[in-house]
Design goal:
Chain lengths: 99, 99
């Protein structure tokens, strides 16, 4: 299994972030072709108390090729454009193979 | 479901890191009481080509309380001590609620 992992640092305005993420961005990301599952991990702390992160989103695909195709599809490009608009300074994106 | 998420940046020596992670650290982490699943995500790139990350480990627990108890148990402390020894400068740890 392959994952596209989006790691979001804490935004200044978490309410505005969550509203846009839940109502606009997640529905756009969910339209990517080949997406098997979108799992949202909401960060609530860390071993030392606080965490600098707000959210980690994991998008599951069958193969590396399916992930590449999804990002290059119109739906993937639309999700990417929206992402850069509302969270360009907060997010980092990573490709992972799950063991 | 609750996750303890460990995010590792790329080490200088990936072979030495992977050897220690696979042969020493993961078996120690797997002994934590209440652990339901340990999932290892090996990072192989990102949308811009490379990624600054090497590995993301996700440890699943039933409740926030079970995670706290696991970290405070002797097995959790042993895993934490080992972690700081081999990856203290590379790792960040986060608590997450899964939707």
């Amino acid at each position: 299994m392959i994952k596209l992992i989006a790691i979001y640092k804490k935004p200044e305005d978490t309410v505005a972030f969550d509203t846009h993420y839940n109502e606009v961005h997640a529905p756009l990301a969910a339209k990517m072709p080949g997406l098997i599952k979108l799992e949202v991990n909401r960060i609530y702390g860390g071993p030392m108390g606080d965490s600098n992160l707000h959210l980690i989103a994991e998008m599951y695909f069958e193969t590396k090729e399916a992930l590449t195709e999804a990002l290059n599809a119109p739906e993937g490009r639309a999700a990417g454009k929206d992402l850069m608009g509302f969270a360009g300074k907060l997010v980092s994106m990573h490709f992972a193979e799950v063991e």
